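FIELD: query
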Amino acid sequence: MIHWQDHITSEPDVMYGKPCFKGTRIPVELILEKIALGRPVDEILEGYPALSRESIQAAQ
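FIELD: result
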């Protein structure tokens, strides 16, 4: 089971407190928008190599 807390964080001094993937400044909202627009996860992973398939699943 994937726990979102292992992959997502919200810190006031990082991206104004927006939820981001741990260890990055990539907002969860950005990736969810790409998924909503129909982008395949593999394509997202190519564009954002700091992310993992599990981290994207945790955000959904």
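FIELD: remark
The chain is about 40% helix and 5% strand.
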